[in-house]
Amino acid sequence: xxxxxxxxxxxxxxxxxxxxxxxxxxxxxxxxxxxxxxxxxxxxxxxxxxxxxxxxxxxxxxxxxxxxxxxxxxxxxxxxxxxxxxxxxxxxxxxxxxxxxxxxxxxxxxxxxxxxxxxxxxxxxxxxxxxxxxxxxxxxxxxxxxxxxxxxxxxxxxxxxxxxxxxxxxxxxxxxxxxxxxxxxxxxxxxxxxxxxxxxxxxxxxxxxxxxxxxxxxxxxxxxxxxxxxxxxxxxxxxxxxxxxxxxxxxxxxxxxxxxxxxxxxxxxxxxxxxxxxxxxxxxxxxxxxxxxxxxxxxxxxxxxxxxxxxxxxxxxxxxxxxxxxxxxxxxxxxxxxxxxxxxxxxxxxxxxxxxxxxxxxxxxxxxxxxxxxxxxxxxxxxxxxxxxxxxxxxxxxxxxxxxxxxxxxxxxxxxxxxxxxxxxxxxxxxxxxxxxxxxxxxxxxxxxxxxxxxxxxxxxxxxxxxxxxxxxxxxxxxxxxxxxxxxxxxxxxxxxxxxxxxxxxxxxxxxxxxxxxxxxxxxxxxxxxxxxxxxxxxxxxxxxxxxxxxxxxxxxxxxxxxxxxxxxxxxxxxxxxxxxxxxxxxxxxxxxxxxxxxxxxxxxxxx
Length: 608
What we know:
Blueprint: H1 4-18, H2 26-29, E1 34-37, H3 57-63, E2 69-73, E3 75-77, E4 94-95, E5 101-106, E6 123-126, E7 143-146, E8 149-154, E9 157-159, E10 162-163, E11 177-180, E12 183-187, E13 190-192, E14 195-196, E15 205-207, E16 211-214, E17 217-221, E18 224-226, E19 229-230, E20 238-240, E21 244-247, E22 260-262, E23 265-267, E24 270-271, E25 287-290, E26 295-297, E27 300-302, E28 305-308, E29 312-317, E30 321-323, E31 326-328, E32 331-337, E33 341-345, E34 348-350, E35 353-355, E36 379-382, E37 387-389, E38 392-394, E39 405-408, E40 419-421, E41 424-426, E42 429-431, E43 438-440, E44 443-444, E45 456-457, E46 463-465, E47 470-473, H4 486-492, H5 529-541, H6 547-565, H7 569-587, H8 591-605
Parallel strand pairs: 1-2, 2-5, 3-6, 4-7, 5-8, 6-9, 7-11, 8-12, 9-13, 10-14, 11-16, 12-17, 13-18, 14-19, 15-20, 16-21, 17-22, 18-23, 19-24, 21-25, 22-26, 23-27, 24-28, 25-29, 26-30, 27-31, 28-32, 29-33, 30-34, 31-35, 33-36, 34-37, 35-38, 36-39, 37-40, 38-41, 39-44, 41-45
Antiparallel strand pairs: 42-43, 46-47
């Protein structure tokens, strides 16, 4: 089909020639156009406006060139064009193009990109191209990219991909999205209910229910991966990366370009795999990284499941980096290992929180509250050791040993073994060596690295409400300023993220010792007025403040909060400075006064 938009480009080119512009205007001078897609449009179907929008996304993709944007209105869209002209209708997919940016979330009248809704449920890309509700005729891949650079997919729900069937090996990898030799961005998308190798066993090993990336470097930001599946043990199909699978890295010059995964949520994904990747492969219910070293930052892994590595599998990789991530309720199938993470890699795991991993998941009845993972409730290290820094391990469990960490590393060099630096362990449990009694079981490893220093054991981290999903630190948490200092990092040449999982600055001196240090876990404690109130009240309860002084100081806090509620920030700061002056005058040069002053100063510093 020859659309109006093509004529538009021809006329533009002719006009440029008439005014003496060089013919080689091409990519360097072409600014691109916006193509519009709306399934409910009733206009000319040319894509030149919302009124005349294409009703089919594939028409826009066919007409788009490098530099164009495609805006897609609310609705459900299915692919209609097969990959490479294949005759199998299930080979249909939305094929991305280099330099073409595809955005969803529009109502169908917007004139500015920022006016759309950042809600992926508004615009749906579905692989259900055949009989509605029947998996047997769905697309093998909903979205596909091969040799694509500079593309963007932003603001969509990708669902209904079924990588099952056909004779092509590719069909069994990346049901939601499949990329090969590509560099592109995926943002604000949801990958839901995509499956590979679940009903058909033409190949033993399948990858990436939600997404599979081969020799590619993706920036994946603010996306969710939910209820995706790779493999099915019932038909002996082994799955790797239920939510996402990454293998290899992108390179055209020999220098590796790795993926970056930021602000994403992986929940209830399944990789139906063996209990040890060395015994047949597979693993990584949420995410699997094989022969690559992506950066994973500020992500949440909740109730994912696999034979090994319920949350993440890192396999044959050198220095994958996991920072500011939360792992809750991830587990393994049967006698699996590594409830949250399985490492056959020298991983860097920094400022992460591991809570209640290794237990039977809530979606997997009966709810008998027993451990499901055998070894390494949170982390299992194999062959080579990871460096685990500023991490919090609480309430993880195994049926065997190593309730938090199991290090199966025997290496000639002690410095190649698992290294634990400034971590906190609390209430992690397992069986004793005879399997008869439940015991505290934090770390099992006959030979940890001698670099392991300054770890805390059997101390309650005092989180605000971990059972309710709130992993903020209380004002009295022992995790505050208990992580590494900047001086320590400079000596050890260790990277630590500059910000926490919410974007708060790390290395805040919250305990008043004039030594800024990172906190342990995903949260960097930044006290607010509520924390200051609780702090003062606790001092009164312990008898460090008499009733009259406590009442006076708490009145300042109330007044400052009232000022903030009225958008009077300057007034609030003035009131808090008065609190400081009152505390110093009343309490003198005492430790209690110094702590009150420091806490109040930090509140003022971060007041917003």
